[in-house]
Design a protein that fits this description.
11 strands; 4-stranded mixed β-sheet; binds 2-acetamido-2-deoxy-beta-D-glucopyranose; alpha/beta; 5-stranded parallel β-sheet
Length: 346
């Protein structure tokens, strides 16, 4: 009797665990986890990827360490499907993918091109992967909203998004914007910011960002048919210029060879993340956030430092070496697409 009761209990526990496990695997957050070393990485060797831009090719530019190539992102409570390039090509055969944004979009786009190129080798062509009928393109637009040359100089128009005309007719859109909203001095692109009829020299950058992003969100809500086009927002990519952010006084990303352990970042999230989340939450179109900020914050070792653009760029703690962190962004993009977490499957 006691024996049967015990068996009954273990069965009940088994069912309970299974329920908890299954439940968890559906509600899983792919974006909280840790980096673990994994010798099966990197996913590709840039010397076999003809599309790689010099500025991301850290090994070619002489970066002496290579530990940073061998990390895999491991969510805390579940696993995500491994990137299957064949499957990706099959799903997107005949379809058009577009990245829109700044040089971080360029970084992620190059990563995806190399990940796919490894699966199917093509003759180098101006339109990569054209032969398979899949097109993966990039439009560089730092702000989404319009930046226009007028008599007074360059005007950043927070309410105007004529740029959107170029984003029509795609099956998958991945947007990213933030870094250029912060730039000041010589690299600032505008002379004036326009809102309504009003021109101002400057304003709080987070406020400007929120207004510009809201204009973008309205464009998506009125121009994208979600049954045809899937839209993602590529989350804010962090920089590592200030070691105090991870409790390492007077350090930068230079000379870093290992990620941070654990799942949290001492400095917390940059404030722009809250703006993105608020704007996305207000949209009628469901635009999933590729929430890569924290996982990338843990990768102080992932930047080109002086091994981008042959060292011509100084200490780059903003972009990412390839192979490297943006490969994980694309692995997670793929995982969201195939698990259909909140998006209709393709
Ligand atoms: C990439 O390939 C090149 C040429 O075959 C080789 O020298 C290099 O070690 C490889 N890099 C990695 C990280 O495997
Ligand atoms: C992180 O963990 C690795 C492996 O467990 C260890 O070798 C390394 O020293 C740790 N780093 C820090 C900063 O604690
Ligand atoms: C989101 O909607 C709320 C409620 O309508 C509004 O108060 C808030 O300002 C909106 N935020 C943005 C970023 O549009
Ligand atoms: C799933 O989509 C709904 C709206 O369609 C949204 O409220 C919810 O936050 C989304 N969940 C995740 C995990 O993105």
């Amino acid at each position: 009797m006691g024996f049967l009761f015990k068996n009954f209990c273990s069965l009940a526990y088994a069912i309970l665990f299974q329920f908890l496990f299954l439940h968890k695997s559906y509600a899983c957050d792919f974006f909280s986890g840790t980096w673990v070393s994994d010798d099966t990485y990197p996913l590709y060797n840039t010397s076999n990827c003809p599309f790689i831009s010099e500025e991301f090719d850290c090994q070619k530019n002489g970066r002496p360490d290579n530990l940073y190539l061998k990390y895999r992102w491991k969510p805390n409570d579940c696993t995500f499907p491994r990137f299957d390039g064949q499957d990706f090509l099959r799903r997107y055969k005949g379809k058009k993918i577009l990245f829109v944004g700044d040089s971080l979009s360029f970084n992620q786009w190059q990563s995806l091109i190399c990940m796919l190129h490894k699966i199917k080798k093509y003759l180098m062509s101006l339109i990569p992967l054209q032969d398979y009928g899949i097109s993966v393109t990039l439009i560089r637009k730092q702000y989404f909203v319009d930046l226009v040359k007028e008599n007074v100089g360059m005007v950043l128009k927070l309410d105007s998004i004529e740029n959107g005309k170029e984003w029509i007719g795609y099956d998958l859109l991945i947007f990213n914007s933030w870094h250029w909203w912060t730039h000041k001095g010589k690299i600032q692109k505008w002379d004036y910011i326009q809102e309504g009829d009003k021109l101002v020299k400057d304003m709080d950058r987070l406020v400007a960002y929120k207004k510009g992003l809201t204009t973008w969100s309205k464009w998506v809500d009125s121009n994208v048919n979600p049954t045809i086009t899937k839209v993602f927002f590529q989350g804010i990519s962090p920089t590592h210029f200030n070691g105090e952010d991870w409790n390492e006084k007077s350090a930068t990303c230079e000379g870093q060879t290992q990620p941070l352990n654990g799942s949290t970042y001492p400095a917390g999230l940059p404030p722009a993340v809250a703006v993105v989340k608020e704007v996305l939450a207000n949209m009628t179109t469901h635009v999933p956030l590729l929430d890569i900020t924290t996982l990338s914050q843990l990768r102080k070792d992932g930047h080109p430092t002086s091994y981008g653009s042959d060292g011509k760029e100084g200490n780059d703690c903003s972009h990412w070496c390839l192979a490297g962190v943006p490969d994980t962004w694309n692995e997670l993009l793929y995982a969201l697409l195939v698990t259909g977490q909140n998006i209709t499957s393709i």
